[in-house]
């Protein structure tokens, strides 16, 4: 899946007789070879666009093409498509509080049949993000930066084509945020996966291969 193309994407919500647009006529293509930043003020539609690209949400109009093909439409097929191709990283980490770091990394594949040793790969990924010694720790025993690195390892467990990261450094101090950002860059180079990340940080966005700027649900520059 070398590219993701959004064609005429619109997302709107209706309430009290008023239609509010979160996205308006979005046309953009992302390449797997690029490390891409989406930047813009709060409410500009960045996270909405990321959710639609990641098949977590559906547009009101328009379409998303993955390598030139439509995504499946049935819910179980969409879930399988997402599992095989897309890894998510969230600002709030979304780790399961009662599971250890290792178990959190394993959680996407726990109930699935795969052709590799799940635990071995999870341990390898924890080692890759520098947390091998924290495999048995609960999220409450980890710092914010450590929790985000566990979340990155979890997103990589199925070796996705794309990593979608929504404000991955937003809850971190500048030093820890820089470490997480550099880790994402390294993974992009090592794994060959496309990275699309949402950020408010201009200095981070300037270091991306592609920068998409959004205002009021529209792309204003690319």
UniProtKB/TrEMBL annotation:
GO terms for cellular component: membrane protein complex; plasma membrane. The keyword Transport applies. CDD domains: ABC_MJ0796_LolCDE_FtsE. GO terms for molecular function: ATP binding; ATP hydrolysis activity; transmembrane transporter activity. InterPro entries: AAA+_ATPase, ABC_transporter-like_ATP-bd, ABC_transporter-like_CS, ABC_transpr_LolD-like, MacB-like_ATP-bd, P-loop_NTPase. Keywords: ATP-binding, Nucleotide-binding, Transport. Residues 4-222 form the ABC transporter domain. The keyword Nucleotide-binding applies. SUPFAM superfamilies: P-loop containing nucleoside triphosphate hydrolases (SSF52540). Belongs to the ABC transporter superfamily. This is ABC transporter ATP-binding protein. It comes from Halobacillus salinus. The lineage of its organism: Bacteria, Bacillati, Bacillota, Bacilli, Bacillales.
């Amino acid at each position: 899946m070398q590219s993701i193309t959004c064609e005429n994407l619109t997302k709107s919500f209706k309430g009290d007789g008023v239609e509010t647009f979160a996205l308006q006529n979005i046309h953009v293509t992302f390449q797997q070879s690029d490390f891409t930043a989406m930047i813009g003020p709060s409410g500009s539609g960045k996270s909405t666009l990321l959710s639609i690209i990641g098949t977590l949400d559906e547009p009101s109009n328009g379409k998303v093409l993955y390598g030139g093909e439509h995504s499946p439409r049935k819910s179980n097929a969409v879930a399988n498509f997402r599992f095989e191709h897309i890894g998510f990283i969230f600002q709030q980490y979304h780790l399961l509080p009662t599971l250890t770091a290792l178990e959190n990394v394993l959680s996407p594949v726990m109930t699935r049949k795969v052709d590799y040793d799940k635990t071995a790969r999870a341990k390898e990924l924890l080692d890759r993000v520098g947390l091998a010694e924290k495999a048995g720790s609960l999220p409450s025993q980890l710092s914010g930066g450590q929790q985000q690195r566990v979340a990155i390892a979890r997103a990589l467990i199925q070796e996705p084509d794309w990593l979608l990261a929504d404000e991955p450094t937003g809850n971190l101090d500048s030093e820890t945020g820089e470490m997480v950002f550099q880790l994402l860059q390294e993974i992009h180079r090592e794994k060959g996966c496309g990275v699309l990340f949402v950020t408010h940080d201009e200095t981070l966005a300037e270091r991306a291969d592609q920068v998409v700027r959004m205002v009021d649900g529209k792309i204003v520059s690319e």
